[in-house]
Design brief:
single chain, 372 residues, alpha+beta, 7-stranded mixed beta sheet, 14 strands
Length: 372
C-alpha cells in the first residue's frame, strides 16, 4: 500500500486564481493499447473536473480550460469514480501550455515535460526515480499469501522494507524544496511530508525558505498549522492528562495508568493505516502486558457502532476510549494532525517517544523492558 503513496498522492488544492486559460495534455506510451481508457481528474474550487479519452495508436490527448492552477492526475483503465485503487496513474499540474508525457511502458513510468511546474515535477521525479524503482521491486505487504501472513517475522520485515524506502525519499524531497523555494511543487511536497511528525522539524526549516506567496496559500497555511500543532507535545515533556469514556461510557483518566509505560495510540475505524498497524501493537501488548506496559487507544470516530465493530474485528483487548466528538478533545490537546499517531509515556509521566510504529515500537519496548 505504501508503494502507491510514493507514486501518487491525490491532493487537489488551488495554486492561484487566473482568468480562464487553456491546457493540452499529450501522452505517448509504447505499451498502450488501442482502446485503453484514460481518465483525467482535477479540481476547480469545490468542483471536481473529470474527463476521459481513448488511446489511439499509442497516444492520447486531453484539452480543456481552467481558472486555477492545480495538481491533478491521469489514470489508465481504472475509473477513479469507482476504483478503490489506481494501478497505473501519474500526477500532472494543470497549467497553461502543452504538457507531454512519454513512457516506455506504463503510465506509472511517464516522463513529464512542457510547462514550468511540470518541468519542476519532472526534476523531482528524476531525483526520486532510483527509490521509486527500488520500492516497486519490494513485496507489497497487502499481497502476501495466506501462508506468508502466518509468518509474523516475514510480515514485519516486508512492512519495514516499505517504510525504510519511504523514509529514504525525505532527504531528496527536502533538497528539492530548498533549491526550488518559489515552486508550487515544493509546497505540495512539504504538505505531504508535514503529515509525518517524525520530520516536522525539517519541514519547519524548509518551509521557512519558501517564498511569501507560497506560505500565504492554503497549503502553506496548512503546513504552518501542522508545525504549530506538532509543538504542543514533544519528547521530554510531561504528558498532558485527559479523561474520555470507554466503550461502556465509563470515564477513564490517563493519569490513572501512570507508574507504567503507557502507549497512547490515536486511531479510527476508517483509517486503513491504523488498522494495518493494529496487529503490530497487539503483538507488543501481548509481549509486555505483564511487564508494566499498557496501551490506551483514543479513537477519533464519531460513530460508536463503527468504533466498536473495529475493536471487535481487530481483536483489541486493551483500554479503548473516545469522546465521539467531531473534534476529539484529546487529539486537540496533543496536537495530533494525522493518524495513526502515538506517544509513549514512561512511569514518571514523561513522554519518551512519539509516533513510533512497526519495528521502531518493537525495538523501543525491547530496549525498555527486555526481550524481542
Amino acid at each position: 500500500m505504501m508503494k502507491r503513496f510514493l507514486l501518487i498522492t491525490i491532493c487537489l488544492l488551488p495554486l492561484n486564481l487566473l482568468a480562464q486559460s487553456s491546457f493540452k495534455i499529450k501522452g505517448f506510451g509504447k505499451a498502450y493499447k488501442d482502446g485503453d481508457k484514460m481518465f483525467l481528474s482535477f479540481r476547480q474550487g469545490d468542483q471536481l473536473i473529470q474527463d476521459s479519452t481513448l488511446v489511439n495508436k499509442g497516444s492520447f490527448e486531453f484539452k480543456g480550460t481552467f481558472k486555477t492552477k492545480v495538481r491533478g492526475y491521469i489514470c489508465r483503465n481504472d475509473n477513479p469514480r469507482y476504483a478503490s485503487e489506481l494501478f497505473d496513474a501519474f500526477d500532472v499540474y494543470i497549467e497553461s501550455g502543452q504538457i507531454t508525457l512519454h513512457s516506455p511502458d506504463t503510465l506509472n513510468n511517464s516522463i513529464i515535460s512542457g510547462t514550468p511546474l511540470n518541468n519542476d515535477y519532472a526534476s523531482l521525479c528524476a531525483a526520486l526515480r532510483p527509490l521509486t524503482e527500488k520500492t516497486r521491486k519490494l513485496k507489497d505487504p497487502n499481497k502476501l499469501s495466506a501462508e506468508e501472513l502466518k509468518d509474523t517475522a516475514l510480515v514485519n520485515l516486508t512492512k519495514a522494507h516499505i517504510i525504510d524506502a519511504y523514509d529514504e525519499t525525505f532527504p531528496i524531497q527536502f533538497n528539492f524544496v530548498d533549491t526550488h523555494p518559489n515552486s508550487y511543487v515544493s509546497l505540495f511536497a512539504l504538505v505531504k511530508m508535514a503529515r509525518s511528525s517524525k520530520y516536522l522539524s525539517e519541514v519547519e526549516q524548509s518551509f521557512a525558505k519558501l517564498s511569501a506567496v507560497l506560505k500565504a496559500m492554503p497549503e502553506g497555511l496548512e503546513i504552518a498549522n501542522r508545525i504549530k500543532e506538532g509543538k504542543k507535545i514533544s519528547v521530554g515533556m510531561m504528558a498532558k492528562d485527559f479523561t474520555q469514556n470507554d466503550i461502556n461510557g465509563k470515564p477513564v483518566k490517563l493519569s490513572s495508568y501512570l507508574n507504567k509505560y503507557v502507549l497512547v495510540d490515536f486511531w479510527a475505524s476508517w483509517c486503513q493505516p491504523c488498522r494495518e498497524e493494529n496487529p503490530n501493537v497487539s503483538a507488543v501488548y501481548e509481549l509486555y502486558k505483564t511487564k508494566s506496559f499498557i496501551v490506551l487507544s483514543v479513537s477519533i470516530d464519531t460513530d460508536k457502532a463503527n468504533w466498536l465493530n473495529a475493536i471487535k474485528e481487530d481483536h483489541l483487548p486493551w483500554m479503548q476510549v473516545s469522546d465521539l466528538k467531531k473534534e476529539n478533545e484529546a487529539v486537540k490537546l496533543y496536537g495530533i494532525t494525522s493518524i495513526p499517531s502515538n506517544v509513549l509515556i514512561d512511569p514518571s509521566g514523561k513522554i519518551i517517544a512519539k509516533d513510533i510504529k512497526g519495528k521502531q515500537l518493537r525495538d523501543k519496548m525491547a530496549e525498555l523492558l527486555g526481550g524481542k
